[in-house]
Fold:
Amino acid sequence: MFAAEDKAMTLDELIEDAQRVLRICNACRYCEGYCSVFPALARRLEFTENDVLYLGNLCHNCGSCLYACQFSPPHEFQVNFPKLMAKARGETYRRYAWPGFLGKLYENNGVAVSLISALSIGLLFWLAGAISNPEQFFAAHSDAQGSFYALMPHNLMAGVFGAVSLFVGFALLMGFLRFWPYMGEELADFFKGGPLAEGLHDALTLKNLGGGSDKEGCTYPTEQKSFARKIYHHFTFYGFMLCFAATSVATLYHYVLGQPAPYPVTSLPVLLGIVGGIGLLIGPAGLLWIKTQRDPEFKVPEQTGMDAGFLVLLFMISLTGLGLLAFREGASMGTWLAIHLGFVLALFLTMPYGKFVHGMYRLAALVRYHLERRRPVPGIAPE
Amino acid sequence: MLDTNKTWDLLVVGGGNAALCAALMAREAGCSVMLLEGAPKPFRGGNSRHTRNLRCMHEEPQDILTGTYPEEEYWQDLLKVTGGLTSEHLARITLKHTSMCRPWMYKHGVRFQPPLGGTLHLSRTNAFFLGGGKALMNAYYHSAEQLGIAIHYEAKITDLEIDGDSFKSATFTYEGAEHKVRAKAVVIACGGFQANLEWLEEAWGPAAKNFLVRGTPYNRGDVLKVLLAKGAKQISDAMQGHCVAIDARSPKYDGGIITRVDAVSLGIVVNKHAQRFYDEGEDFWPKRYAIWGRLVAGQPDQIGYSIIDAKAMGKFMPPVYPPIRAKTLRELATKLEINPDALEKTVAEFNAAVRPGTFDHTIQDDCVTEGITPAKTHWALKLDTPPYFGYPLRPGITFTYLGVTVDDKSRMILQDDKPCKNIFAAGEIMAGNVLGKGYLAGIGMSIGTTFGRIAGEEAAKYVRG
Structure:
């Protein structure tokens, strides 16, 4: 009964092994103080496929339970909980991708693919600009408003990114709308104030990467507790949100105030972009670095590419964005603009089929956790 | 690097909780310490790896411990389970020690958490380790490495050079070669002998073949044998140990806590002839689980079957192995490979004997049987609601109590009743001094922590004067 080899698993093998391990965890429960996964697990006697995917997305992969596990390899029970949960997340991302046939993109959404897509798109922008109007494209530019759009018409840029954003938003929404009922929840329950607020709180503060009841951080990248992952993730997430805010404010400037980009360095959109951009350099670089330091037992080779590809794109967006800011008056502005837009568009296009989606499924799982917490434990005696 | 050229201040034999407590205490007192653990690194920590809490005396609420657990109550609990097979002096030292040792544990990285789901009854008496015993051992090992204790894994002691009341050197195998190390003192903390099946068979006879070893496979009692041969005064006997009824499908070794079956008090337990043999509802399960290993060991072929019906499902901690399930008792008997007629008869007699009552698993309720032997004195409900479920049971030994006698400085006592100068024993190898019989949840870690710390401290005093 107890033998799990370390290899790529079919879905049936994954679910079967997860059920075996979840039974072990449920009979043990030593890890209950580490995170939300174990209390959620302890509410159940049997584990369905839905439970496996739910718990997988609730798991933040902090690693504490594997270090503490008396049954981890080489013990014959071969319990590697974080790895199974990582695989369950991978399965979720594939299964709930929209449109469905693109779900298999996760498997080859690695660093190389991300970079190649970004650079190809950048090259297209560059060629479009350089061939159609070389004199203007390679000229030195004044910082005057509208110089970007002299190279790339605003309506084209807004049109392309607007359309892609709508598609991305729709694809993500479709994923959520299928995953949420799959976990057995009513859509209306997602919007219940208390659980939603608590789920958001846990997501935005990364509560589950803060350590267990000791609040001393998580065992990432090594066994010694640290806040490294939490801090780098905050840099990444809040950096991303500031960049997003910069774009949103700029959009308001454009349409409401009638002021086209670029804006002065001291303007709100640029300040937001600079601060966010620095966050997006530090965060992804830090996350990539600690990923290389992590104990190999945690690695799921078929998913490492997806994780790293996403981080590399975020880093490059920020790097090229700051490069564009620095050189926007020089002859290379056109090139910087093309490459930057290439990375941004590549990120957008891969968003629904890459690591980005973890945030949405994680939030869904956290909200569900807080919904469940309010319900009586089914069928288990208080003793 | 293995350094056997110098004479170490302290050699610690073993690598579980007691061993690490001793090593850390001695190192803190300035001793040079070498620690030899027999197990490979992933399995270090002996049975401490499988533990989860420390039974703590406290006169007032302490962080995660609710209410109070005064010395006298703790002592009475211990007296009850051991039936008096305990040294009151050493026991009271242990109890008092548990009320003050946790800040030191915390300093070395051990963290505590509120009681786990399904263990609320222990929130007053037991302090749970965050992440369990392996997390505790990881913390101690990390601290030991930071402090410069020389730790070697897969180092197996083959002989001890003892001159009268004094330890001189230890011989051990390590990385395929034999080595000898000298030390001014030694702490022996390498557990009992539960994984030594031949030894178990000597004590229990052929029945031992059907025992499962729930604890670590590395405790073979080799060093204990050497000590007994070289004049140590024995404590307890080879048939005493912490022996619970575990799922018969568990692995031969190292199944740990998850192999337990908590369904006993909610149904009936029969032997291979489908006969009941003991009152399943004698007392709360946490107070009685430790006697069922012995009870099953006393049955033919050392096997039992815990049988419940649908009413009980979900009212106990879920065991690791799924129950064997059937729509009828006949079908269940067939699946369990016991006589269907006999099981039907046993259940019919039991059901007929059940008196009406108000079932409440959280108190000693009034659901009893009348007119059958053995009676079921609480929680007796008819087995009448399919599906029926069965869990096969075997005796599962966690650790044995046969060991060496110690004094209150954790010094090993010789057959002439005199303590050794520089040989200390701690943990399961001397647990029999305090726990001669029975078990009390969390007491193993209490004894290990107490005498591990005392041994380290006293060894340092001896070495450094």
Observations:
- Chain A is about 65% helix and 0% strand.
- Residues 1-5 of chain A have pLDDT under 50 and may be disordered.
